[in-house]
């Protein structure tokens, strides 16, 4: 009598079941919550706006004068330019084409949202005082406001 050794291995059905289970586990890991990415983009834009406001206020308080032939300090401010889709840190007046202006690209999903309101802020020399106002930003999902009081304090 010949005894055949028992063949060890997996059947096709067992392999397919294992592949199916692994596929299900991987699909759970691959699910991306896009709201997390949108939230991060929104927070980055909010932080960018606050940083730009702080930079303009610091320049005004330091009585900085930028550009050739400048002998006296100037007021500095921030505005939004829809033509270039940029925030503009300016000296004296909001002119994105001026050599003393600094353009910072804006997130078009937020800056061009019809509910977003970005007023122009001008900070006084040495004091950093400005007119109280609120920046309202919205991306269609999230909404927030950044307020600036007349002493130039930025709250977000």
Judging from the principal axes of the Cα atoms, what is the shape? rod-shaped
CATH hierarchy, class of the domain at 42-65 and 75-155: Alpha Beta
Structural class category: alpha+beta
The CATH level-2 architecture of the domain at 42-65 and 75-155 is identified as: 3-Layer(bab) Sandwich
Record the strand order, biggest sheet.
3-2-1-4
Major sheet attributes: 4 strands, antiparallel
What are the segments in which pLDDT stays under 50 over at least 5 consecutive residues?
Answer: none
Give the mean pLDDT. 88
Outline the structure in words.
The chain is an alpha+beta fold and 156 residues long. The protein has a domain at 42-65 and 75-155: minor pseudopilin epsh domain (minor pseudopilin epsh fold), CATH 3.55.40.10. It is 33% helix and 21% strand. It has three helices and seven strands; from the N terminus they run ααβββαββββ. The chain has helices at 12-30, 34-61, 108-111, and strands spanning 76-81, 86-91, 102-105, 121-123, 133-138, 143-148, 154-155. It has a four-stranded antiparallel beta sheet, covered by helices on one side. The chain has a three-stranded antiparallel beta sheet with strand order 5-6-7, covered by helices on one side. The longest helix is centred in the N-terminal third of the chain and has 28 residues, at 34-61. It is rod-shaped. 19% of the residues are buried. The mean pLDDT is 88.
């Amino acid at each position: 009598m010949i005894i055949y050794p028992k063949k060890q291995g997996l059947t096709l059905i067992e392999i397919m079941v294992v592949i199916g289970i692994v596929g299900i586990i991987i699909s759970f890991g691959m699910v991306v919550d896009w709201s997390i990415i949108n939230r991060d983009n929104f927070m980055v834009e909010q932080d960018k706006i606050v940083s730009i406001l702080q930079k303009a206020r610091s320049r005004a308080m330091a009585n900085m004068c930028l550009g050739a032939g400048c002998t006296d300090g100037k007021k500095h401010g921030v505005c939004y330019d829809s033509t270039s889709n940029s925030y503009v840190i300016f000296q004296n007046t909001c002119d994105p084409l001026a050599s003393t202006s600094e353009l910072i690209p804006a997130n078009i999903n937020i800056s061009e949202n019809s509910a977003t309101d970005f007023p122009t802020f001008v900070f006084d020399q040495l004091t950093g005082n400005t007119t109280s106002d609120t920046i309202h930003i919205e991306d269609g999902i999230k909404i927030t406001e950044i307020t600036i009081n007349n002493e130039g304090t930025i709250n977000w």
